[in-house]
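Table S2 (text version). Query chain:
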Amino acid sequence: GLKERTAEALEVSRQYLPEMERIFASYGLPKELTRLPLVESSFNIEAYSKVGAAGLWQFIPSSARLYMRLDEVVDDRRDPWTSTDAAARHLRDDYLVLGAWPLALTAYNHGRSGIAAALRKVNGRTLPDLIARYESRRFGFASRNFYAEFLAALDVEREYRRSLAPAKPPAGFELVEVKHYVPYETLRKLSGLEDEAFRQLNPAYRREVMDGKLHVPPGHAIRLPSGSARQFQAAYASLGDSEVYAVQRAYYQQHQVRKGEHLGRIARNYGVTAVAIADANGMRTSKKLRAGQVLKIPPRGAQSARPVAHAGHAAPLRTAYRTHKVRSGQTLSSIARRYGVSVAALQHANDLISAQIRSGMKLKVPSAS
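Corresponding structure-token output:
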């Protein structure tokens, strides 16, 4: 089935590769690296491994939390564009530490610190040094052959592309940013899209969000078909007070306490405070937990859900801005990375409908949150 699976992956990849190449180019990375999902996931957005790796780029949870959002609301590993940006930064960091692409790509499979430690152990500098001299149960067939497998996939994709007529450019999209906690279904209706079309553009939301148990949080970017952002923003501005919220809905996960766990450790694992868990369970933070006890875990920032008072007419919060003059060759993405803000935040601050900017333009840059 490998031949058939690869053939399907090559066809699916055509709708993603143009944007993926653009993202990697914005980080100064070789475009060939965008073919790595052929090895990792066969370009299956729904891919999920037995060790918990998910999405096109097969991020495990610990790596994902370093480069993207992964919580009870959003799993950005499922978003092909956001996860591509995360993968670009991940691979860039691997390369900066290890100094060579064969090592960096092998580290994507085996782990950056693991490859660095292996090189030190054999006093080596290259991947062939590791293959020839490094012995470890963890550095098995998959890790030893990962770079070779990538090269094979790259060669197959190159030949496949030569045999095809140029692909029709995929449909573009625009980003808008919500300013309140808003039900997913409300945003879907404002977009004018059917359920499946909206989900394909915004695939990272958890089932709890799509089912209405949690709201889409403020500051999160929504993707819309090109040309529809202004209409969406006008409709969003007209939402009534009962349709947008100041706080997240109080939706609780359950956690069964394991032996040796304490409230602080559980809170860190879920990205909430010990006080929030204690309040949700009607107990003091000093209370000793017992193994088997079931705790309610609130979402990040959760309080009792209530509408925003006069949301459509309230005076906006004053935001501090700095000014950036665009230089030749800069992109909105590179400027956003420089200041530690999102592209959507820059677009919103400057009333930009697209990510196109020109040299000499002066941009307002909001403070990083």
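Notes on Table S2: Residues 141-162 form the longest helix (22 residues). The chain has a mean pLDDT of 86.
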